[in-house]
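Below is how a single chain appears once it has passed through the pipeline. First comes the sequence as given, then the structure the pipeline wrote out for it. We keep one example in the README because the format questions we get most often are answered faster by looking than by reading.
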Amino acid sequence: MAKFIKRKIFHLNLVIFMEKIDVIMITKNSLNPCLKESLDSIFKNIPVNRLIVVDSFSSDGTVDLIKKYEKVKIIRKDCKRGRARQAGIKEVETKWFAFVDSDVVLAENWFNKIKKYITPEVGAIEGNVKIWGRIQKIRPMGRAYTNCTLVRTSLVKDIKIPEEMSVFEDQLIRKHIEKKGFKWLKVSDPCSVHMSTSNVLRDSYEVGRMSGKYKLFPFWLYMWSLFVVLLKRFLGKPVDLRIQLRIIKGYVKGLTERF
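Resulting structure:
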């Protein structure tokens, strides 16, 4: 009974405090592929207190477009993705906030759907995405993504993201939250559209290096992934070994930089 009452009180407070939330978006020449559609989806599907945009001095009209929207705070900062996210977090005023990337178009009723997963034990809720035409499989132990994620502000106000971190900062944020005893949930609904322009092969070495240097994933998980890829190749399936090999090479390099 006491647990039931505590949960009811929590959800009552949630209704009071979540009328509006801040949203963080990081940009750098992000006009394409879908910045306007992303912005429209944010203001349509989230009760926005402020849209906090951390822009790395775009020159393609990104900032001009963003300025057309109301309730926007723009921070011009020449830095990598990790420090850009940290700069955005510093400006958050609401008890919860959302990360939404500039190449993500939010699902209909995104906020109303995702807030239903909030409990006192939850620190962040990562919405699912459809990317390159496929809906992502939910892997609770897989790496975190912050492309459309709701976060409890108090858990990350003290985070220090390394200046060098241009990839995998989302996994570091997850580890920071989980170390405080809170859960990072991955949910299948809402499912947004991610029009990713990232180069997975290009980024794979740096993903491995960040993971090894900052203890973001155990080495055996990458070795297991390599084994799975090799098995698929043995069975005659078309697979590319380069990504896994580059991640492992980067991980080893990261280990050497840790000491």
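Residues 200-258 form one domain.

See the next section for the split statistics.
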